Amino acid sequence: MDVNGRFITFEGGEGVGKSTQAKLLAEKLVTLKQKVNLTREPGGCEIGEKVREILKSNSRSIDPICELFLLFAARRDHFINLITPWLKEGYFVICDRFYDSSLIYQGLLKNVSIEDIMKLKQITIGNFDPDLTIVLDVSTDISIQRLITRHLVHDEYDQMSRQKHDIIRNGFQKIADIFSFRSVLINAEGSEKSVFKKIWKAFEKRIGI
Ligand code: TMP
C-alpha cells in the first residue's frame, strides 16, 4: 500500500497531552485544506470502542494475554476498515496511540514477551508502520499532577502507581530511540501552544505537506 507518509501516531503515558495535541495537529492540517481523520486506539471502530470500555472498566482485572488479543483484534478491524481505506483516499490519519502502546503497557508493564507482541503485530498489520510517531514526554510528577487536575486519580496516588508511570515513561523514551527512523521525542511540559510548535516543526521536517 502506498501510504505517502500520511499515518501519524501520538504516544506517551497518561497525562502527557496526546489527545489535545493530536486534535491541534488535525485542526492545523484542516486549516491548510488537507483531508484529515483523527482516530484513537483502542477505539476508532465499533470493536475498538467496545475494547476501550472493557479496558477502562475497573470491574475485574483481565489477563494480559487476553488483553493483548482484544487490543490486536480491535487493531485489525481498525486497520482494515478505517485506516487503510482512509490512507488510500489520501487522508492524513492521526491516531492517538497505536501498537507502540501495546509494547509498553502489555509488554513492559505486564510482562508479555515483546517477541510475541511483534509476532502479533506482524499477523495484524504486517510491515505497516506509522510514518511519524510523536512521543510526548513529561516528568512523572507532572503527569500525575495533570491526572489529579483532571480528577482521573486521587491525591493519595500510591508509590506503586508512581513506579508504573516511570516504567511507562522510560519505555516510551526507548521506543523513540529504537524507532528513531519514524519517531520523535518531544518534551511536553510547556504550554499547549509551545508543545504544539515543536510538534509542527517535527511534522514539517519529517512529513511536510
Ligand atoms: P488513553 O488513550 O485515554 O490514555 O487510554 C487508553 C488506555 O489503554 C491506556 O491506559 C493505555 C491502554 N492501552 C494499552 O494498554 N495497550 C494498547 O495497545 C493501547 C492502544 C492502549
Outline of the structure:
56% of the residues lie in helices and 12% in strands. It has 209 residues and is an alpha/beta fold.
What top-tier CATH class fits best? Answer: Alpha Beta
**What is the β-strand count?**
5
* Helix run count: 8
Largest beta-sheet details: 5 strands, parallel
What helical percentage do the residues reach?
Answer: 55-70%
CATH superfamily: P-loop containing nucleotide triphosphate hydrolases
Unreliable parts: none
Q: The CATH topology is what? A: Rossmann fold
For the largest beta sheet, what order do the strands appear in spatially? 2-3-1-4-5
* Derived structural class: alpha/beta
Distance, first to last CA: 19 Å
Any ligands, ions or cofactors bound here, and which? thymidine-5'-phosphate
- Overall pLDDT metric: 93
What is the N-to-C order of secondary-structure elements (H for helix, E for strand)? EHEHHEHHEHHEH
Cα Rg: 17 Å
Keywords:
single chain, 209 residues, alpha/beta, Rossmann fold, 5-stranded parallel β-sheet, 56% helix, 12% strand, binds thymidine-5'-phosphate
Write up what this structure looks like.
The protein is α/β, with parallel strands linked by helices. It has one domain: Rossmann fold (3-Layer(aba) Sandwich). It is 56% helix and 12% strand. It has eight helices and five strands, in the order βαβααβααβααβα. The protein has helices at residues 18-31, 46-56, 64-88, 99-109, 114-125, 140-149, 159-178, 192-206; strands spanning 7-11, 36-40, 92-96, 132-137, 183-187. Strands 2-3-1-4-5 form a five-stranded parallel β-sheet, sandwiched between helices. α1 packs across α8. The longest helix has 25 residues, at 64-88. The protein is globular and about 45 Å long. The site of thymidine-5'-phosphate has 11 residues, from α4.
